[in-house]
Amino acid sequence: MGVVVSFEDRSSAAPDIDALVGLVREDMGRVNALIVARTGSRVTMIPEVANHLISSGGKRLRPMLTLATASLCDYAGGGHVNLAAAVEFMHTATLLHDDVVDASEMRRGRIAARMKWGNEASVLVGDYLLGQAFKMMVEVGSLPALGILSNAAAVIAEGEVLQLAAAKNTETNEDEYLQVIRGKTAELFAAACEVGAVIADRPKAEQAACRSYGMNLGIAFQLVDDALDYGGASATLGKNAGDDFREGKITLPVVLSFRRGDAAEREFWRRTLERIDVRDGDLEEAIAIMRRHRALEDTIERARHYGAMARDALALFPRNAAKQALAGAVDFCIGRVS
User: Fold this and answer.
1) Quick one: CA dihedral 160, 165, 171, 176, positive or negative?
2) Closest Cα to residue 66, out of 193, 252, 212, 178?
3) Who's near 83: CB < 8 A, 6+ residues apart?
């Protein structure tokens, strides 16, 4: 059961992404149809496993960002639909793989695929989705877009390995942790946004601005997730609150709490996260320590900082519906703590 933490400076109503959803609604219909078509296979287990996760209610924020940045850059072709579907397949594949690595039992509010079909099937179906993603990229015929997304796949894998190397290491510092989330989370946000400008053949400055927007948004998104794990509802998280703690994950609230704590508090983190000796009441104690050192609030403040950088990246573009929708996506990502 989650423990609800009161974050400071919350608005009375959490921001939504209605403007973004409305902007890309027609194109997302085409993306969703393409996703359904490309999960088909004569091997029945492949669509079963893939659709278990794909149909589980994710907001599909990353493909919407590809469509929105293409709109921001006045793209008039159809390649953005393929690229958006490829981005979603890449994201889904990483979730399937992550659940195996983390031994997760829940994903997006339902049982994880690995719990139903096994680790082997989850990994292999994730590989199948990556293969389909690259096929869709090739069909667009843009070598720069293919280069961006294929590079992102490599960087994401590096980030996951880096996280694995840092797992249960309470000596991890903030710079090291940010390097992990830039790779494992923010890189796909960045690539998803950059390709929207690239296929529109926009100037390098605009391509870089879209990438900067996505990178900073992705960092903010992950930092908010880090805080929510110690104070969010399961429905918001799509997993059980406290899973990061129980799995021994080192996230920014832990990094800040460990650095700011006394000897007894640091020993608490070593026992629970390094040795995975978690006892009744330890999650509540972890939250109490974080409150004592303002670790959750400061994690959210850092998320707001990166959110502001994402908004600033949009300043290069004229004011229009796409720009407003992308700015609203920043508010939504930060506002999930409301």
Assistant:
1) negative
2) 193
3) 66, 136, 137, 140, 145, 149, 195, 196, 199
The full DSSP string for 80-104 is: HHHHHHHHHHHHHHHHHHHHHHHT-
Range name among 173-182, 234-243, 279-288 with the lowest pLDDT average = 234-243
Determine, yes or no, domain membership for 5.
no
91-129 pLDDT, tens digit each: 999 999 999 988 888 887 788 999 999 999 999 999 999
What is the Cα–Cα distance from 198 to 214, expressed in whole angstroms?
Answer: 14
Model confidence pLDDT, tens digit, residues 249-306: 999 999 999 999 999 999 999 999 999 999 999 999 999 999 999 999 999 999 999 9
Q: What is the sign, positive or negative, of the torsion defined by CA atoms of 228, 297, 166, 264? A: negative
CA separation for the pair 223, 214 (Å, rounded)? 14
- CB neighbours of 265 closer than 8 A, spacing ≥ 6? 257, 258, 289
In a domain, 306, yes or no: yes
Assign 107 to helix, strand or coil.
strand
**70 domain residue, yes or no:** yes
Contact 334, 6 (CB under 8 A): no
Question: Is 238 a residue whose pLDDT tops 80?
Answer: no
Containing structural domain, residue 251: 18-335
For residue 307, the one-letter residue type is: G
| Cβ-defined contacts of 239-244 (< 8 Å, 24+) | 239/104, 239/106, 239/107, 239/108, 240/2, 240/105, 240/106, 241/1, 241/2, 241/3, 242/2, 242/3, 242/283, 243/102, 243/104, 243/106
Tell me if 118 is assigned to some domain.
yes
Number of domains in the chain: 1
Tell me if the pTM is above 0.70: yes
Q: In this structure, what CATH number is given to the domain that contains residue 257? A: 1.10.600.10
Contact in structure between 152 and 191 (CB atoms under 8 Å): yes
Q: What angle do CA 19, 222, 38 make, to 5 degrees?
A: 65
Structure token pair of residue 243:
């899973």
The residues near 19 (Cβ < 8 Å, ≥ 6 apart) are 321, 324, 325, 328
